[in-house]
Design goal:
By secondary structure, the chain is mainly alpha-helical. The protein has one domain. It contains seven helices and no strands. About 25% of the residues are buried.
Length: about 170
């Protein structure tokens, strides 16, 4: 039952991601939005493909989890690891982001609290996905598979972060 709920939430996340990518793509066309993206340190040329990549991975994970496929487990665990790293990064950088966005101290604290709660949820879901019954359902018996899935999330986080910094450097030329 828990796996089915997570799979459906993953599919819903994919649909929301596609809508979000479309909204970012449309918003990036106006000059005011370009200034906002620059202020946030997110380049639309990286944001839209990144959002679509994550939406596709969420959709694939959801479908494969519903089918009980091992790859679905690996994709979902990788996405959880990526999200845990992203939330950890946001907790560490909340003060700077809040300042860049013109938020007061309460806004920075709220941002830190929000990402802390998300991080706790990520860790709980990672623990759940590594429970014996869940691993057996997906046919994941070896610990090495878990290391590969988490490593995938770490690499994805690093690549998306590097792509964003590279796009920012190129746009400043």
């Amino acid at each position: 039952m828990g796996v089915t709920i997570l799979a459906i939430l993953s599919l819903a996340s994919a649909a929301i991601g596609v809508l979000g990518a479309a909204a970012v793509g449309l918003a990036s066309q106006s000059p005011e939005s370009g200034a906002m993206f620059a202020k946030l340190g997110v380049h639309p040329a990286v944001a839209v493909p990144s959002i679509l990549l994550m939406a596709g991975a969420n959709g694939a994970a959801g479908v494969l989890m519903l089918k009980g496929k091992r790859l679905g487990w690996g994709l979902y665990v990788g996405l959880l690891a990526y999200d845990a790293l992203r939330n950890t990064h946001m907790i560490a950088m909340a003060g700077l982001f809040a300042e860049d966005m013109g938020l007061d101290a309460d806004g920075g604290s709220l941002m830190m609290f929000k990402h802390s709660v998300r991080l706790v949820i990520n860790v709980c879901l990672l623990i759940y996905m590594h429970a014996g019954g869940v691993r057996r359902y997906f046919g994941v018996e070896r610990k090495r598979t878990s290391a590969w899935a988490i490593g995938l999330g770490v690499v994805a986080f690093g690549l998306l972060l590097a792509a964003n910094f590279t796009a920012q450097d190129l746009s400043s030329l």
